[in-house]
Amino acid sequence: MSPVLAQTVLAIHLAVIAFNVFGLAAIPLGAWRGWAWVRVRWWRALHLASMAVVALQAVLGRACFLTLWQDRLAGARAEPPLIMRWVNGVIYWPLPIWAFAAAYLAVFAYVVVLWRRVPPSAR
């Protein structure tokens, strides 16, 4: 297939993960520190929607569509590049799907609580 496209999808996947994890820490910290940008509605809605998609996929017992896309693009290769192996080791854990579903539902519930406790600004 296309190893360059597979690496691009992996980079996008890593960016989505970083965005989601960043929001989990930045929102409560920003609320405590008085940072106005953590209340920007479109940013918060994007974070909420992204976490909802992650949780929904896990609850439905499905792997992330980015994971599936990357696998399809990578095809059968003898050995992925070192950085790709390292990143894959960090983001892909050998756990059953129910463990991911429970964790992602808990994280999504946390994001919903953040939405209520640190509400986005009206405009």
Task: Provide key terms for this protein.
123 residues, mainly alpha, elongated
Could you describe the 3D structure shown?
The chain has one domain. The protein contains 5 helices and no strands. It is elongated, with a radius of gyration of 16 Å. It has helices spanning about 5-35, 40-60, 65-75, 80-90, 95-115. α1 packs across α2 (about 40-60) and α2 (about 40-60) packs antiparallel against α5 (about 95-115). The termini are far apart. The protein is mostly helical and about 120 residues long.
Arithmetic mean pLDDT: 87
User: Which structural class best describes the helix and strand composition?
Assistant: mainly alpha
Strand content: under 5%
**Largest beta-sheet characterization:** none
Which residues sit in consecutive blocks of at least 5 with pLDDT less than 50? Answer: none
Order of helices and strands: HHHHH
- Note the gap between the termini: 45 Å
Compute the number of structural domains: 1
What is the number of E strands? Answer: 0
Structure in a nutshell:
The chain has one domain. The protein has 5 helices and no strands.
What does the secondary structure layout of this molecule look like, with pairings?
Elements: H1 3-33, H2 41-59, H3 65-74, H4 82-91, H5 97-117
Helix pairs in contact: 1-2, 1-3, 1-4, 2-5
InterPro entries: DUF2784 (IPR021218)
Keywords: Membrane, Transmembrane, Transmembrane helix
Pfam family, one: DUF2784
